[in-house]
Amino acid sequence: MISSDPWDVIILGSGVAGLAAALAAHELGLRPLVLEKASRLGGGTVSSYGLIWVGHNHLAHAAGHHDTRDEVIAYMRFLGGGSCDDTRMSAFVEHSPAALRFFEQCGVRFHVVRGLTDHYYGKSPGSHAVGRSVEVDLISGFDLGDWHERVAVPDDVPCFVTMEEQIAWGGINSFSHWDPDVVRERKHQDMRGKGLGLICHFLRARCEPAA
Fold this sequence. Notes:
Layout: E1 9-12, H1 16-27, E2 32-35, E3 52-53, H2 58-62, H3 69-80, H4 86-105, E4 110-112, E5 133-136, E6 139-140, H5 163-168, H6 180-188, E7 191-192, H7 194-207
Parallel strand pairs: 1-2
Antiparallel strand pairs: 3-5, 4-5, 6-7
């Protein structure tokens, strides 16, 4: 039952865009309402690998990976092949590092994905070997409390490992060689990463204050 009290922000969809908007609105003192047509939360995000690309971010710099705004723009212009909207591209480059830091301060735990390079690394201007792709840490579905059963869980994505681990363990095609004890324990603890983990982190950040 939806309260009859006024809402400041109405958000359609509970994928990461919707939950990020709701969390940001809440942190700014507004009352957001998220509307989802499906029976469970998460949208298409839960079936994704949950990677977020942010150049010149604080996590990369803290890990010793140097990056500059000019390199990020050069790389994006190369990928755009002359079709970039400079205004939108500049807005993304300027504000995405701050957005990443903002949501981290809300309690969402991110880390740099090692082993994943920019596309055309070594060939495109401004490309980097590591530092720009980030993902969330693993989170247990049990941490969601009453919301645990309200999130859609895909059956075709190995969400119990991070993307960084999946790369280090030889990729999805090497699943038969992954440590079965680790896999069993992760499933027992309902550990969630990738897109599913992203949704769970944003839900937990909204449901309980960050430490």
